[in-house]
């Protein structure tokens, strides 16, 4: 019988911030599921995807979350302002040829 995993820090914080808005929480967690699914999908290639592509895709998904939540709730859930640009991969450390 499968066991349910404990929520991680992100989900715990999102549940706390959006406790009075279950539909919004559900939409955010659904968006997160899409992100995780995309991240798990391997791009057919011998080389890893370029840093710029990974960072662009990540930023697009953060922008979607910001549109969904609004600036105030976004910052409460994510811990940084919606306007802040996030690079998951430092392009200077990756060979993007």
Notes on the structure:
With 97 residues, the protein is mainly α. The protein has one domain. It is built from four helices and no strands. It has helices at residues 9-17, 22-40, 51-69, 71-78. The mean pLDDT is 86.
The topology string of helices and strands comes to HHHH
From the helix content, strand content and strand pairing, which structural class follows? mainly alpha
Mean pLDDT: 86
N-to-C terminal Cα separation, in Å?
47 Å
Q: Rg to the nearest angstrom? A: 15 Å
Shape: globular
Number of DSSP strand runs: 0
Biggest pleated-sheet summary: none
Query: What percent of residues adopt helix (DSSP H or I)?
Result: 55-70%
Contiguous runs where pLDDT drops below 50 for at least 5 residues: none
Number of helical segments with 4 or more residues: 4
Strand content: under 5%
| Number of discrete domains | 1
Task: For this entry, give a set of tags.
97 residues; mainly alpha
Brief overview:
The protein has 97 residues and is an all-alpha fold. The chain has helices spanning 9-17, 22-40, 51-69, 71-78. Helices cover 57% and strands 0% of the residues.
List the helices and strands and how they pair.
Blueprint: H1 9-17, H2 22-40, H3 51-69, H4 71-78
């Amino acid at each position: 019988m499968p066991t349910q995993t404990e929520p991680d820090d992100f989900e715990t914080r999102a549940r706390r911030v959006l406790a009075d808005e279950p539909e919004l929480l559900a939409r955010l967690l659904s968006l997160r599921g899409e992100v995780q699914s995309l991240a798990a999908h391997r791009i057919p290639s011998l080389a890893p995807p370029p840093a710029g592509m990974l960072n662009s895709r990540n930023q697009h998904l953060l922008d979607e979350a910001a549109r969904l939540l609004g600036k105030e709730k976004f910052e409460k859930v994510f811990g940084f302002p919606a306007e802040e640009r996030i690079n998951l991969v430092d392009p200077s450390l990756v060979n993007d040829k």
